Amino acid sequence: MNDLLASAVSAARTVADDGADDGAATRLRIRESLAKRTSKKRLWTLLAAALGTMFASTAFALQAGWDPPWSSKTEVIAPAAPDPDPPATPGSPRGGRVSAEPSAPETTVRFETVPLPSASGANQALADEAPLPAPPVAADPPAGDPPSAEPRMSRSPAATESSAPPPRTTVAPPVQRPTSRSEEPAPSSAVDRTPSSAIGAGPSIEPPPARAADPARSVEPPEAPVADAELAAYRTAHALHFRGTDLSAALTAWDALLAKFPSGRLAPEARFNRALLLVKLKRWADARAALAPFASAPAGSYRQREAHELLEAIAGR
Amino acid sequence: MSGDTEPSLLARVAERDPAAIDEVYRAHHAALRAFARRYIGEHEAAEDLVHDVFVALPDAIKRFRGDSSLRTFLSAIAVKRAYKHVRSASRRRAAMTRLADQPHAPSPRPDAAVAQQQLAALLYAALDKLSDDHRTAFVLCEIDQLTAGEAAALTGAPEATMRTRLFHARAKLRALLEEVPR
Asked: Does residue B54 carry a pLDDT above 50?
């Protein structure tokens, strides 16, 4: 048995040594394989670099608040903030984010959807072209009578006194970029930014007015011709009030508006804004007189609670 | 080429310099191929193993510290990479046996090699039934005629372990060869 194993080992040794050649074929195979492996390594390196660049840029863009081009348009839901802005258009006075419009009283807290800020022009264009949701109720209020109020965030009198222009916070703060568009209180721009859908909004839809592509232009007074003289006057007074420095001119503008359109659609809101302006001007008696009709209205009426709180705040002055 | 291989040559190999790899190939391919043939028992698979060893050499050479010869280092790479070739060759041999075909390709010297081929075929058929460790120990120590210490250094196993493996491999091979009808 040992002989058989030894013979087999010897035979294996002999057979293994048979057929020796110069190994040229194997050498060529080795060269080819090494060249392929080098090419593959380069390819993977380039691919890894490209993927790394894409990942890093995407992470940076997300960190910076930009949407990558391939991301879909996303909307967030944010509660509506108290807003004394005027309506967008005469026919459809309340957009998704115009909250203080006299002709469209509300009885519930509204939520609105706002688009995420995006660097993508396509996304912005989609947001811009979205039709406006119509208010749930579109009937004009009785002339001279403040419309029914909607439950809103109560405005502290001190805060109101210190800064009469209400905060324009319709865009959710976590996703809001500090652009002039987001903080601008002009009615036209507010309407322009109204998203395509709004929770709690009415069924009727109205297309938004034409707007400039440049975001910086939205802070400027509306350039489009305004057909409604009352709306134009309201915008003028609003701009003077909330963006101007001459408060007396703003008061004159509010007075002119109310004198020209005492029963207009925007008269209740104009009266309330005028009252706010009087508070800001520390004309306490006039302010009390202007706020009294609102405060004396039935509970829950339009601006009733705000007016009541303001009257309490300025009592004794 | 031995343990005094020029460091510059090794560096060029690590950089995948084709000329350097060719130089190492010319110096070691014959011995490595013979080792591969003895280990696997099949010429074609042995060529594949040599190919794999030299393709892997540029990356593996970074672990070469010069404490052994380059030939030993190449053989160690071959041992580590031989398992899959052994299994492939084993499957082919089993298939050839089932088909009652020649266990090996025709030899260039058929007049003198038939008996040797039959004996070698018997041995490799038995080796295919051993574990990888036992097969490695037997091939290195018996067919390749390395000492237990050299085989241990080649495989990284302790020398005593190598001796134990060799002992068990011999015993199993004897039993397997005894079963073969002659």
From this structure: yes
